[in-house]
Amino acid sequence: MWIGYWNLPNAVTLLGMATALVSMLLAIQGQFALAIVGLVFSGICDLFDGYAARKVKRSAEEQAFGGQLDSLNDVVCFGVLPVLLVQSWVKTPLLFPVFAFYLGAVLMRLAYFNIHGTRETKGRACYTGLPVTSIAMILPVLSLPIQGLPPVGQKVWFGLLLGVTGVMFISKVPVPKPSGKAYVVFPVLAILAVAVWLIQFRVSMIHF
CA-CA distance, 64 to 56, in Å (whole number)? Predict the structure, then answer.
């Protein structure tokens, strides 16, 4: 009756997509703190859909389908969402070249990974280039210091942030694949980032 494969890993992936969609709508409405919280949550979903995939028995075709679904979802959550969030924040056409480069880097990075996967480096599985999911921590953390900057400073900061991150996506630098403690450390860092942004949201509501 339905195309595709419906299982726990794919459900977690789609939960991340739904969260990203809500975050886009929040960003358009100017609710940047909540939108960034949604970005972080999408990152957590991406971290744990892989964990769920390793715990659920799936056929080779189900695994291939899940990989494609995850890759397409990454374009939405960690490509389109950050661009829309930043543009809604700074409201300028001047960063279009940076946005185009960043999104192109996301697509190139994911296409490369779909073909080559991870590679063994010094006895450890490593990604080639920074995983696109890292923007779910980079943007929330590095957006905090700019709130006191003038509008021009914010535009420059975001332009550099997305530009440098895009370069790191398509670099050939090996990045160790998260494992073990990473499933504890990353969520803890994410919770701290969410807490700070929720405080920011609370303060903005009080001032409003």
Answer: 14
Q: Sheet of 174-176: strands edge to edge?
A: 119-121, 124-128, 174-176
* pLDDT tens-digit map of 17-45: 999 999 999 999 999 889 999 999 999 89
Torsion sign, CA atoms 27, 67, 183, 135:
negative
C-alpha to C-alpha distances, 27 to 61, 65, 77, 188, nearest whole angstrom: 37, 30, 13, 24
The predicted pLDDT at position 202 comes to: 59
H-helix segments, the chain: 8-28, 32-55, 60-75, 81-90, 96-116, 135-143, 151-169, 182-207
Q: Report how far residue 136's alpha carbon sits from residue 55's, in angstroms, rounded to the nearest whole number.
A: 24
pLDDT tens digits, 49-90: 888 888 888 899 999 999 999 999 999 999 999 999 999 999
Per-residue model confidence (pLDDT) at position 201: 58
Rounded-to-integer distance, Cα 61 and Cα 3, Å: 13
CB under 8 A, 24+ apart: contacts of 69-72: 69/4, 69/10, 69/13, 69/14, 70/13, 70/46, 71/110, 71/113, 71/114
The model's pTM: 0.90
For residue 55, what are the CA distances in angstroms to 5, 46, 50, 95? Answer: 16, 15, 9, 42
> 185 falls in which pLDDT band (50, 70, 90)?
confident
